[in-house]
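Most newcomers find our protein records easier to grasp once they have seen one. There is nothing in a record beyond a sequence line and a structure line. Getting from the letters to the tokens is the skill we practise here. An example says more than a description, so a record of this kind follows:
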Amino acid sequence: MKKYLLTLLTVISSLIALAQSSQSKSEKISFSTHETDTEHRLKASFPAERAERVYAAFTAALGVAKQSSATESTWTGGTYTATVTPTGFKANLDKENASAKEIAKFKQLAAGLHKALGQPQPPQPPAH
């Protein structure tokens, strides 16, 4: 009986140690945003575990993807393109030809992506 009890305690302690080590694993997330008077670009790479949240942020801001497969989803509009893969995304908006509604969608998208990736919101630039 002691042998079984000792084996059980060893297995339990091993599982606890494994669970703690998997929780402390750091995620490598890269997120960049570039906005000028003429364009707004978003780009990121992230662990595959975040893909569902990222896809949901795109869907919330831009609606259903125009094209979708197991490895890539694409949104296109008159002035924007966006592509999402299981480990990254790229999105571009031509602000010179975009309507105010499209610019607002992109700002909503950027905020949703910051939240989905657990990234802090960038500071607002000073007003001109």
